[in-house]
Design a protein that fits this description.
Layout: H1 15-21, E1 48-60, E2 73-85, E3 89-93, H2 100-103, H3 106-115, E4 119-120, H4 127-133, E5 141-145, H5 151-154, E6 164-168, H6 169-176, E7 197-199, E8 213-215, E9 222-226, E10 235-240, E11 245-248, H7 256-260, H8 271-287, E12 292-294, H9 299-303, E13 310-313, H10 323-336
């Protein structure tokens, strides 16, 4: 969602741009079939997803949604995920906000963003710190998948020294060509970019309603799916848990409002492609009613999951863990003993 923050510095100057955001887009035709998707659904036993809230981005509706109010505040949680796989060990999807953002917010959102307190990062909210507290050793993570390269998704990327890092080829090439401050990419997080593994979705086959999908381990348990639009190479993760298929969208969908109601963001790298991807998610949810969609910045969506293979570890603004999140995580730790 960081594409939009610079808008706050010049609200008055954007009115002409915003007028174009209200133009209706035609609903794309998505073939009503599930390519290579088994029905009735069968999941993979032993997969468990841990969700960690690593902070929040504070904004206003008008800087997030086309046609939104410029006086209504919005707090959007920044979520990162660790997946326990029965044969492949630990996998991470997005690494959340850097703890540095607590000390030096201007490094990420500039002077004005820091003054407006756009970033809320509680102490010890970093993904790797919370993982250790949950009994998950970052040193045991073998794979880190980055949905896209905005800084609120790459903040703790250096905490996984033994992991291969996967990004979409289009995203890697975009970053390698040089990014601007307004791209909200932290150049410090890209130190090892040349060594990262790139997924070429043009060479991958469709899956379900998605244009292309990469079988992460070759066993059909976890797929990476092409969700380009928000950025040139945005990607999601589709996880076949025993309870239900779970789609982690990254910022292809900021909140449920994005995919349920096709609420347009104020900006995207390719708005037409973003629009098509949203309708692909919507069509998948219709054809696979057990699908759980988890957007990248939706606290309510995370809290509502409620299946045994999904565990929420939430940390609020004051650094406290809400009782319901603590109870969920505690039950998992007890189950390991």
């Amino acid at each position: 969602m960081l594409l939009v923050l610079s808008r706050l510095a010049a609200v008055a100057a954007t009115s002409a741009v915003l007028a174009g955001c209200h133009e209706p887009l035609p609903v794309p035709r998505i073939d009503p079939s599930l390519e290579r998707w088994q029905q009735p659904y069968t999941g993979v036993a032993g997969i468990r997803i841990h969700a960690f809230r690593t902070g929040a981005v504070n904004s206003i509706e008008g800087a997030v949604w086309a046609g939104g109010s410029w006086s209504s505040p919005v707090e959007m949680g920044v979520w990162a995920f660790a997946i326990e796989h029965p044969s492949q060990g630990l996998v991470v999807f997005d690494t959340g906000m850097a703890e540095r953002a607590r000390r030096e917010p201007e490094h990420y959102v500039g002077w004005l963003g820091a003054r407006l307190r756009m970033l809320d990062v509680p102490e010890s909210a970093g993904l790797s710190t919370q993982m250790r507290d949950a009994g998950l050793d970052p040193a045991n993570v073998g794979t880190v998948v980055i949905s896209h390269l905005h800084f609120d998704h790459t903040g703790d990327i250096g905490a996984f020294p033994n992991a291969r890092i996967l990004v979409a080829r289009a995203e890697k090439e975009w970053a390698a060509a040089g990014v601007r401050a307004t791209d909200f990419v932290d150049s410090d997080s890209l130190a090892g970019l040349a060594r990262w593994t790139a997924i070429d979705y043009a060479a991958e086959r469709p899956l379900a309603t998605f244009i292309g999908a990469h079988d992460l381990f070759g066993d059909g348990s976890i797929f990476l799916v092409d969700l380009a639009g928000h950025t040139p190479g945005s990607q999601g993760m589709l996880i076949r848990t025993a309870d239900a298929p779970v789609l982690l969208t990254g910022d292809a969908a900021w909140t449920a409002r994005s995919w349920r109601w096709a609420a347009k963001p104020i900006s995207a790298h390719d708005m037409g492609m973003w629009w098509e991807q949203i309708w692909r998610i919507k069509k998948f949810s219709v054809l696979e009613p057990r699908l759980i969609v988890i957007p990248g910045h939706d606290d309510e969506a995370v809290e509502a999951v409620g299946v045994g293979s999904f565990v929420m570890h939430r940390m609020d603004r004051d650094g406290e863990v809400p009782a319901h999140a603590a109870a969920s995580a505690g039950a998992v730790r007890a189950g390991r003993r």
